[in-house]
Structures are given as C-alpha cells and as structure tokens.
Amino acid sequence: MHKLDGRPHRPAIGEEVLTEELRALGIRPGGVLLAHASLRSLGPVHGRSRAVVRALRAALGPQGTLVVPTFTPENSDTSLVYRRRIQGLTERQVAELRSTMPPYDRRRTPALSTGRLAEEVRTHPEALRSDHPQTSFAAVGPLSHRIVSGHSRGCHLGECSPLARLYEEGAQVLLLGVGFASCTAFHLAEYRMPEQPMQEYHCVIRVRGERIWWSYTDVALDDSDFAVLGASFERSGAPVATGRAGSADARVFGVRDAVDHAVAWMASHRRPGRRQG
C-alpha cells in the first residue's frame, strides 16, 4: 500500500478476486441477493462498477438473481431530497421546479440516490424494474420477473412490494461497505406492525401519456433507528456472516431473519402510532 497526498492508495483488485471474496462471505449460488453497496468503500476494482456486477452475478451463479433498490425520491415533493433542494428558493422558483420535474419512467428514470451499483444493475440489458414511482427495485436473473412484478404504486415497501417477494424466496442481503442503517429489508417489518403511522405522499407519474401529480397514503417509513436495530440483530445470534471484500467491511444475512427480528424489536422499542424521527 502506498500513500498519495497523505491518503492510503490501495491497488485495484480484479474481478476474479472479488468474486472469490464474495463467495467466501456465504452468498448462495442459485439464490436471490439484495445488494446494498458503497463502491467507494470497496476501493478500486478493475472494470469498475460493471466488474462489480459481474462478480456478484458470478458468485450467485447462472441460476442466481441479483436485486438492488433503485429509489427515486427526486420526483416527489414529500421526500427529504426535495425539501433540501428547495431550501432558499423563492415561491416562483419552487413552482418552476415543480413544473419541470419529470414523471417516473421505469425504463429511463435514473436511481440517483442509491449509488453506482444500483445504476449499473438498472441499466443492464437484462434488467427488469418495478413500477413504484419512488421505491422501485431492479433485478437481473431468472427470478427477476417474480421479484419486481406486481409492485403496487400505493405500497412503498410492504406486502405488495419486491421486499415481500424477497422474504418469500428466502433471499439474502449483502451490506457491502454500508451499515444496517441502509438495510431496506427492515422496512418490511414496519408494515407487519399494528397501528403504524400513515403519511400522504406525492410524486410525478404519467397516466395515459399525461404528466400528473399523484397522491397516495402509505406507512410513514422511518429508518432513524435502523443502526440500533441492526446492532440488536447481530447480538441476537442470528446467522450474520462478516468479512471483507476489497477494502470494504461486509455482512451477509437472510431477509427472513432480519425482518422477523425487526418485527419483534419494533414491538418492544417503538411506540404504536408514533413516528420515531
């Protein structure tokens, strides 16, 4: 390892090495994998994000299916991304911005908020993507259609979303260079809790060729305690494989284990009917 401008410089790793490191983490050949990754934490890889996708697919094998979140909060006026974007704007500027926000298009709308890996999978020629205008998922592999189809526009991450299909399929989760705060699977537990707080959401969609603002009511999603929840999950004795891939710390675990633990944890740590943060 050398230093450049005082920062450590790690040599790029090859696709084959990365594949072996991913296999060593316990990714199941022929299985379904929901991947969350920080490619910056992973470090340099020969072939960049495209090689990372190839390595993940090689670890899964030809019968495996790779899934990523491809969220698009940019087309909503109820998202944190939007609220940050309009800070300091005049009413006229906000109105102009709203008038030019493009409607969600599952084939074309980029997943700007979920990183380079998500974009690499989304733009893969074999990828399929779900229809939800804010919390879509993209998948590549034999079970892609099963995972992403039927994603109701009125259900972010509940029983009518790919998360429920991942639970049913016994999928694994990979956290690569990110922590449990990024564990989308925990959101499914929110839908399985009684007396969940609800929220009205707004986003831009296209209906019969016409661009419209659409409103719907769904569970008020809250990831503010996911890091604490994840620490509890690791301490619970659930099978969580840990290791490294490239320069990144990594974890692999089952969606079912994570969601079932989250349901029990939320029942004792979240007050019914109250949003936490």
Summarize the structure.
This protein is α+β, with helices and mostly antiparallel strands and about 280 residues long. The protein has helices at about 15-25, 40, 50-60, 80-85, 90-100, 115-120, 145-150, 160-170, 185-190, 225-235, 255-270; strands spanning about 1-5, 5-10, 30-35, 65-70, 130, 135-140, 170-175, 200-205, 210-220, 240-245, 250-255.
Description:
The structure is a single chain. The protein is α+β, with helices and mostly antiparallel strands and 277 residues long. The chain has helices at residues 15-24, 39-42, 48-60, 80-85, 91-100, 115-122, 144-148, 162-168, 186-191, 226-235, 255-269, and strands spanning 2-4, 7-9, 32-37, 65-69, 128-129, 137-140, 172-176, 198-207, 210-219, 241-245, 248-254. The longest helix is centred in the last third of the chain and has 15 residues, at 255-269. Residues 1-7 have low confidence and may be disordered.
Mean pLDDT: 93
Q: Strand share of the residues?
A: 15-25%
Please report the number of helical segments.
11
Poorly predicted regions are 1-7
Order of helices and strands: EEHEHHEHHHEEHHEHEEHEEH
Radius of gyration: 19 Å
Number of domains: 1
Number of strands: 11
| N-C termini distance | 42 Å
Helical content class: 25-40%
The side-by-side strand order for the widest beta sheet comes to: 5-6-4-3-7-11-10
Protein name: AAC(3) family N-acetyltransferase
Keywords: Acyltransferase, Transferase
Family: Belongs to the antibiotic N-acetyltransferase family.
InterPro entries: Amioglycoside_AcTrfase (IPR003679), Antibiotic_NAT-like (IPR028345)
